[in-house]
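ping. complex inputs:
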Amino acid sequence: MLTRYRSEISVGVALLLLCAVLAVRAPAYFHGDNLVDILMSSLPVLVIGIGMTLVMLVGEIDISVASVFAIAGVLAGSLATWQVPLIIAFVSAPLAGALLGAFNGMLVARFRIPSIVATLATMVALRDALRWVTQGAWVQNLPPGFQWLGLPQGAYPAAAAAVVLALVGMSVLALAYLAAGRQVFATGSNPEAARLAGIDVPRLKFWLFVLAGGLTGTAALLNAVRFNQIPGNAGLGLEMKVIAAVLVGGTSVTGGRGSIAGTVLGVVLLGAIGPALTFLGASPYWERAIQGAIILTAVAFDARRTHRASVSHSVVARSQRAAT
Amino acid sequence: MRLAITGVRKAFDGVHALCGVSFDLRAGEVHALVGENGAGKSTLIKILTGAHRPDTGTITVEGQSATHLTPALARELGIAAIYQQPALFPHLSVAENLAIALEAASPWQRVHWRARRARAKALLHDLDAPIDPDQPVGGLSMPEQQLVEIAKAVGADARVLLMDEPTASLTHRETTRLFEVIRRLCARGVAIVYISHRLAEVFALADRVTVLRDGEVVATRDRSTLSTDELIRLMVGRALEHTGPTAAPLASAAVALQLDGISSREAGLRSVSLQVRRGEIVGIAGLVGAGRTELAETIFGLRRLDGGTLRVKGDVVRPASPRDAIASGIAYLPEDRLRHGVIGDMSVAANTTLASLGRVSKAGLIDRGLESRTSDEYVARFRIKTPDRSTPVAALSGGNQQKVALARWLATAPAVLIVDEPTQGVDVGSKAEIHARLRQLAGDGLAILMISSELPEILAVSDRILVMRRGEIVGELQRAEATEEGILALALPDASASPAGPSLAASRPS
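pong. complex structure:
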């Protein structure tokens, strides 16, 4: 049982160690404002991470998320400034994300383009299209009801956290109890066997890309309402943060293995490290180096586990035969 | 004596793979190594190639003794191994592949292309293999690749050749050619260790046979003193019950699957008609490329159906995907278990219910309790040997994996079950058990269409036998009148049965 959750446990332990060091050396880290700051900047990564985990579990990847993120945020903001009813502005972000996700999904599922190539293309194209449309201008003069989704500023973090928690919970349950969740793991482990077992693999992949896009749009909205202007180049490099967190959480690059819980821990660990360095008095320039080291460790673990799994399987098989 | 090992033991994590094995190999002989999966054959081969180091025991090669070999030492002593799947570089040419194995590797060495090509040509010519040395290996057929492997071994002046199931992906005719090459090598004094699950090949080729069971040598015998039944008894440790049809199914039983003039350009099928009644097992025999697997794939919605009608329990269906086929009551146990059958990372329970998730769900959610009960039921019914239902299927032996795959399809409650090479790569004991299960399922009213390249299997299990050739059904034989010769005569285009025995054909050429 413990071995099944080994990567989740190791990330959890790393996180506890970090907390222990901080508790001794920089207790101010645990001040409410700081924690809320970390939470608020981690939420978008986490929401996109849910979708990314699902996509990576079937052995695909979506590197266009940052561009989708920027478009969804700018679209919601622009609609709001054009005096469109706010609810429509809010809903437009996840919808736009889902639509762009559907385009990615079509390229991957219908035209069989490897997702890393397809989403690289959409990443570049969407980013430049946005720049062309906005001419580099930021969305400003947002109506008052837009910020904090119209909630009191103090209530927003809790509301946003509740929404994200609900999304996490639903995705965990879906993976465990929906037939589609089972099909995700089967497809990621062995797409050909999955197809022969009656799973419509292209359709499953298409809808996962739609879902990932929709979640990315949701993340864009949760992020946009925190500021009084929306930059056209929002989220640059965000895809790397998300993919890193998913990998650190133990999801296999080749698909079939991983969990939402791992992604949650990965996001929290990577999100907590940057501010921690500041609090510990280390140069913030170390942040990316340390994140890189963590990612490398996680991927190395995954490689070793994959190797071990094949070895231990054959040992079990041998001992069983010996026992019979 | 070319090679001898004495008292070799090897354990992995305390589990004995070999317990005191002694074995010898004479110059110019083919020494067959047989045994069920897990008997220790592969471990023994790995010890001889230097991949594993034995715990105790000695290895003597040409009079020199050692406690273990290393891969480099094994090569130096002239030991080469050829596996089921050729280990070649697909994007490099034949000549380059040979060069990597045969030329001293130094990064700064100048490549003598002409000499390299000439050598490759000479080696291939020597084996009578019409292969262009400049062709990329990836474009070669499986048997051609195998010949390149053999050329590698010959070029390295191998005096001991270890062959691990070399015919697994060869057709009958290719197998015959391989045997010619093997005999030629023997005549030159090369000693060959030959591992195969196909007993017919063992009898056709071997001079001596060593039987391994649970890591011990049960017997080493001259082939001439052995019979098939005796060999099976030695391998399994008990006599196998012969499973034949219990009672002929009623000719009046309802037709579960009916094909009328099925044709498919994609699958190369031409006007195939057949019917399978409830309770009946219909065997499909034929050579590789005869269209047997393609027929199964067409019925299962994997290939485009161009014409004809397909009826399941009387209703016309036209499956466009496996999903459709499953919904119409068709189940298909594919040929390549690891690639297409089970999902190794997933548990026994999850594998069992994968094609019937709807049946174990309530209100759209999987009912874990119901799933566990379903899985436990099949584990008990098929006697699947597994620590528990949450064990990943990859941890089970081949025969047990196949039973899980079979369980998955039965869990869909099909009307028709198509099985494609149901016992390929499965040991003799599990094989008999799978045959018994198939008989039992037929007895319970299932209609079964069984594709097999092993004629003894076809003859032992089927009620009726259909023979395919070039995408058509060319003959039907009743169980009582069917013989291996009769089937071969129908299956072979020129009706020339070959001496290599009943193994008609193997998997699709890849």
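Chain B touches chain A through 47 residues (CB under 8 Å).
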